[in-house]
Design goal:
This protein is mainly alpha-helical. The protein is about 50% helix and about 0% strand. It has a domain of about 30 residues. InterPro entries: NDUFB2_animal.
Length: about 100
Amino acid sequence: MISSRSALLGRSVVNALLRSPSGAVQKQAVRRGHAWSYRTAAPPHSKGVIIGSYMVGGFMWWWILWHLWHEPEHLTGEFPYPDPSKWTNAELGIPPDDADE
């Protein structure tokens, strides 16, 4: 009960403080976290953002190339590739030479 009454009292105090002397409610802009551009080019990124993006991209490529070099089994598989010279014609689906066509 006390919390609901204090919430009502708090809203009343905030509304009273936001009212101008003429009685109109003043509104404040919220969420000014980014630049706003309408039909214009976006503002350039800061130097920190550019350097950070290059660092993250460089780390990503290092991670990919490092693991491709040291663990190629991710692409080639973990089992040895069979020797194709040991395959028979029957396994490959090649008919014998003396077969009639």
